[in-house]
Amino acid sequence: MRVLLKKRSEDIVKEHDLDGLNCAICMEPWRSEGDHQVSCLPCGHLYGFSCISKWLQRPVPTTKCPQCNAKCKFKDIRKLYTTPVVVVDEGLQKKSDLLDLRDNLLDKESSMTGPVPGPIHTMYSLAQSPVLGSNSQKLLTASSMGPCVWNTDAGKRPYLVPGFENQGVCTSLAYGPLSDDIVASYHPKSMKSNSTVNSQCIDPDSSPFPGSATLCSQLLVKIIADSHYRNLGSTSAYLSNGQMARTAIINMQNCSPLFAYGDEATRGLRLKELPSFNVTQNLKPHHHPILDVKYAHDQDAGILGPVGEDKLQLFSAELLQKR
């Protein structure tokens, strides 16, 4: 009585790995010539010639393939006269595919970080730019190096907006779509550089909170044409050490643009007129630092909203204009 045993899937996998690499009888690599030349049976399984010859010449009633039990005879052996057979290792092939995929992802990631490494923290569409037109496919983004412009329909790498080079660590970006004004806020690269800032550059309307604020710079650049920009000036302000600065540009009819930001010295919302950076208003302060500043508008009205840890304020743009 014969007992048929089912092969485990692990055994089948191992058997498949050996097929094409070693002789399944002696487990040794076969040769391209000689006694152990690679040979095949009608069923397609490969063996060394000397091994399969001995197997099929055994004194048994019926000779079969050692692997699949297909009936065969000595005369069915066929030597393979080929160059060395190479079988791709599936494990190595998968690793190679994963490496290729990782390289592709790294290439895409590097293209999304701007000209230099650093994650993007702010993004604006330039589709409403009066200069570029409504058909513009450009994006304005900011990473730690500063504002960058992307031309999404050209497939080109982004470029750093001229006028913002080597300013420090960019922590905030504001864009006014109606006036094409860009204001970027920069922390100094080190506290040492902060301590050496010329006292004449300090905003006289700010007084620092020791240990929680850093004297930072705010730069204004205006879009004047496609790929052309004009530096309109800069100022200083005290911003938080431990969080990203949040800012906004307010565009109103018959009024100069206003730049709004959370001033760490007063923990209130401060408004500065552009392009002069003259302080126009200091709105009611918060008990905690301002976490975000948003401005939304339509044809009839605009709303400015600073958000703190415990307070949300809403200001009408019309009231801001009248003050």
From TrEMBL:
Name the Gene Ontology molecular function terms of this record: ubiquitin-protein transferase activity; zinc ion binding
> What Pfam families is this protein classified in?
zf-RING_2
Sorted alphabetically, the keyword list is: Metal-binding, Zinc, Zinc-finger
Q: Does the keyword Hydrolase apply?
A: no
Do you know which InterPro entries this protein is assigned to? Answer: RFWD3, Znf_RING, Znf_RING/FYVE/PHD
Q: Which Gene3D superfamilies match?
A: Zinc/RING finger domain, C3HC4 (zinc finger)
Biological-process GO terms, alphabetical: interstrand cross-link repair; protein ubiquitination
Boundaries of every RING-type domain copy:
23-69
> Which SUPFAM superfamilies does the entry link to?
RING/U-box
GO terms for cellular component: nucleus
This protein's name: E3 UBIQUITIN-PROTEIN LIGASE
